[in-house]
Amino acid sequence: MKPDPVSKPKAAQTKAPAAVHLQTIGPEEAGQRLDNYLLRWAKGVPKSHVYRIIRSGEVRVNKKRAEPTTRLIEGDVVRLPPVRIAEPSQMAAVNTAQTKSRARGYSDKMPILFGDEALLIVDKPAGLAVHGGSGIALGVIETLRITRPELKFLELVHRLDRDTSGVLLLAKKRSALVELHRQIREGQTDKRYYLLAHGEIVQGAQVMQLKYPLHKYLLPNGERRVRVDPDGLPSHTALRVIKSMKREDAAITLAEAQLKTGRTHQIRVHLQKLGHAILGDDKYGFEDLDKLIKSKRLYLHAHLAGFTHPRTGEKMRIESPLPSEFAAMMKNFPPLTQDVSSE
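Given the sequence above, the corresponding structure tokens read:
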């Protein structure tokens, strides 16, 4: 794109589409979330603005309002409103020496669990968002795009909350992304998490089946929250207690949660509803108890991802070990029940 010949040499360069544009989704774009599609279309536009035009209804899919998480299908018609899109020269400023240095630092703390021509699977640390956003310049996806510029295509297959650690899948090929999204939609993947919860969870002989419908809503400040609601979306978590631990002033339980559905904040809200919020949960947790036992993070870790390789058809099982913070916390609590993790 050529710079505006009448603008000042050092000024930020933008272009402004003059009118609403209707874009038909092709096979290469199908399977993407609406927000990811728009963020690529509107490079240089603040993410907060992209989400605002979705929520305001300025962006529509097949003439209807849509959520940021809406999956686009081949043939969908997306209404794109006029926005100011940054010039390439302005976008180049994003990759400053300082930004690249920060990205390398993040990358060094993010072990690679698996990689081939189709997939990149990392062990995401707690505290690092999967993508940038309001107030967050770099997330996992931006970090990897900067530190691995040879990858022409790289997209998140799924997401983890910023404070959740563990196995995170990314696709290097559009075809791999589409196939893994299909497996997720059809319940053909296996995602399991380790967690530490407040109190002693009494399970009995059977795995607990938590089936609380969930509803997403926004706080007045625009922050996203989820609550149990009879009119919410069906949600299902299978919970297996591994062991409970107790000291004079508190008890905690180590458990494994298996996602049967993948709703926003699902495990966190299901454990809150159960009366055993996850340690260190600043949205759905027990603040007084977290202070008492000195929780340092959200004790939720995606330790296993099972799926079929999108190219080879091989059954994959990618695992991440229990973080050191979990072991350090559990050392403060004598065990109440037998460790059944190997059963």
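The first helix runs from residue 34 to 41. Try to locate this feature in the token string yourself.
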